[in-house]
Amino acid sequence: ESIQQYVGEFRELAKRPRSFLTQILNLACIVFSALMLWKGLMVATRSESPVVVVLSGSMEPGFHRGDILFLTLYDDPPLLPGDVVVFQIEGRDIPIVHRTMNVHEDNKGVYNALTKGDNNQVDDRGLYAHRQLFIGKKEIMGRAQAFLPYVGMITIWLNDYPWLKYILIGSMGFFVIIGRE
């Protein structure tokens, strides 16, 4: 019955092309506004990914699973031991949030860093690429500047429990239909 209701709603909109076009354009404006905001954040922070969610407990007690981190990738001030960075190793899909233990900079300004999760017993050399002892600028996505505790749990739940996505989308559709009546 609910699918027939959606089809009926669509047919009613199709009978009024101006209303249908207005709704499509409103949706496009929302999507493009979100994309422009994201691109603006990327330019302002110089980070490919200015906002990330902590996915594991390796940084506890400093950061917990579900915390949202805000990143920047400025060269000044230079990277220091103790800075929390997000880095991605080539061949791995998921970025890692860990703290720098050691930072080595050569006379050309090129630096290498050794990282470790606050809640881990050993450093991250086991996570790096084969025979890689440090990470460099090309692996670092950004340095944590601020965080919102636990707000990212929604993202984790939606990835861990796909059925929640369907409930969320269905309820949004329900409220759109109810709101129009």
UniProtKB/TrEMBL annotation:
CDD domains: S26_SPase_I (cd06530). GO terms for molecular function: serine-type endopeptidase activity; signal peptidase activity. GO terms for cellular component: signal peptidase complex. One of its GO terms (biological process) is signal peptide processing. Its main location: endoplasmic reticulum. Belongs to the peptidase S26B family. Catalytic component of the signal peptidase complex (SPC) which catalyzes the cleavage of N-terminal signal sequences from nascent proteins as they are translocated into the lumen of the endoplasmic reticulum. Specifically cleaves N-terminal signal peptides that contain a hydrophobic alpha-helix (h-region) shorter than 18-20 amino acids. This is Signal peptidase complex catalytic subunit SEC11. It comes from Spumella elongata.
